[in-house]
Amino acid sequence: MKRGEWAVLALIGLMVGGVMVRNILTTSGPGTDPAKDRGIPFYTTASPDLARAGADLVRQNQCRQCHSLWSVRDMMQAVPSPPLDGMGSLRDEAWLFQYFSASNPQAVLPSRLKPEYRMPSYKDLPEADRRTLARYVASLKVQDWYLEETRKTEFEKLTGKDYKP
Ligand code: HEC
To answer: Which of 55, 124, 141, 161 fits a 20 to 30 Å CA distance from 14?
Structure first.
């Protein structure tokens, strides 16, 4: 073989090797390597009392018919509503209180869903319960790295471009 041919072969070898190494690296990303698994990104800042009162109200008012909380929702429901996990990183207590108190929640947050799927008004709940619910939901936080990863995935899915923070 001539010199030039060896050089081409060597180059091909390098490229194949590079792809193999990359495949090994990308298949051992988060999720497959337990050492890199950062765990569940959701947490609450609620005191034990608030957590108990909040969970009671969520159960009494059947929020899980439509929303997941701690990644759990009622089996029979198929409403495409946002999860409550991490909601406190998106909305604050004052916003939540006025949302739960609104006679028409869709005036606060527009909905594209069928009327029977939409967020119901909780204005008839006692004010103390609406305040507790608002405080509890505001305590449901999500870790920053998870938000950042979600933004990145969404951006790349929608645009096909690389995401730069
Ligand atoms: C019938 C289904 C249903 C029930 C029951 C329900 N929700 Fe909703 N909720 C929705 C939908 C759907 C939305 C998205 C807005 C819309 O489409 O009206 C929503 C929106 C929200 C939002 C705002 C989300 C955002 O993106 O800012 C919060 C907070 C919320 N719900 C909390 C609750 C709580 C707490 C309960 C129980 C007290 C509850 N929901 C009960 C369907 C429901």
So the answer is: 161
CA distances from 125 to 25, 38, 60, 80, 104 (A): 53, 38, 11, 24, 14
Q: Does 131 map to a domain? A: yes
What tens digit of pLDDT does each residue of 96-137 get?
A: 999 999 999 999 999 999 998 999 999 999 999 999 999 999
Residues 3 and 163: their CA atoms lie apart, in Å, by 42
85 C-alpha to ligand 1 centroid (Å): 12
For the whole model, what pTM was predicted?
Answer: 0.78
Atom of ligand 1 nearest to the CA of 112: 17
CATH number at residue 112: 1.10.760
Mutate to test the pocket of ligand 1, among 119, 121, 125 (most ligand atoms within 8 A of CB): 119
Asked if pLDDT for residue 24 goes beyond 60, the answer is no
**Scanning the structure block, which residue is given the tokens 């939540």?**
96
Burial class (CB in 10 A: 0-12, 13-18, 19+), 138: buried
